[in-house]
Design brief:
Distance between the termini: 38 Å
Shape: globular
Number of strands: 12
Strand content: 25-35%
Strand order of the largest sheet: 9-11-8-6-5-12-10
CATH superfamily: Gcn5-related N-acetyltransferase (GNAT)
Largest sheet: 7 strands, mixed
Structural class: alpha+beta
Mean pLDDT: 89
Helix content: 10-25%
CATH class: Alpha Beta
Length: about 180
């Protein structure tokens, strides 16, 4: 079993969900989160369209969360600002949970926290939609729907059935279209 440790600071705890807690990722968590992401996704993640959009771009600190159990990071999710045509949106990912902790609901708790927090920031000059590349059946309960393939061009190939959007306000992405690119 892989051991990933974290500096525990109870003042950062946002939500305690049965046997684990969800909190904002801190700078001291970065290496543990990178290690977790590599353990979950492997080197193949570097070839994916979603990675190309996030590569070298810092995730939003207030929208990056970790799940911890007994002081160990067992899951994480990050949101990063990107461009979709002329609009700024959030790119979710990676969302990952260590295999031995998948049955705890940490991934779903991380998703709820990320979407709820992003939604609470709309109206404060923050993006009003989240996109991701992932399994529609998993992400649909969080408000994600498929994007019409003609509306978005990713920097690398991706299954169009897996390119999803969550409007944080009604119909936010209805008129979005174009190339998805890094926000630089």
């Amino acid at each position: 079993m892989m051991s990933i440790s974290v500096n525990s600071n109870s003042s950062n705890v946002i939500e305690n969900v049965s046997s684990f807690e969800i909190r904002v990722q801190t700078p001291s968590d970065s290496q543990a989160v990178d290690d977790l992401t590599m353990a979950v996704f492997g080197a193949g993640m570097f070839a994916r369209a979603a990675y190309a959009l996030r590569e070298g771009i810092a995730a939003e600190p207030e929208l990056s969360f970790v799940a911890c159990k007994a002081g160990k990071i067992i899951g994480s999710v990050r949101l990063t600002k990107i461009k979709w045509g002329d609009d700024t949106v959030l790119m979710l990912g990676p969302l990952g949970v260590l295999r031995e902790y998948k049955s705890l609901g940490a991934g779903k708790a991380l998703m709820r926290k990320a979407v709820e927090t992003a939604r609470a920031r709309v109206g404060k000059g923050e993006p009003n939609a989240i996109i991701l590349v992932g399994d529609h059946a998993y992400y649909k309960p969080f408000g994600f729907e498929r994007i019409e393939a003609a509306k978005i061009k990713l920097p690398r190939p991706a299954d169009p059935q897996r390119v999803l959007v969550c409007d944080l306000v009604a119909n936010a992405s209805a008129n979005y279209s174009g190339v998805a690119a890094k926000l630089e």
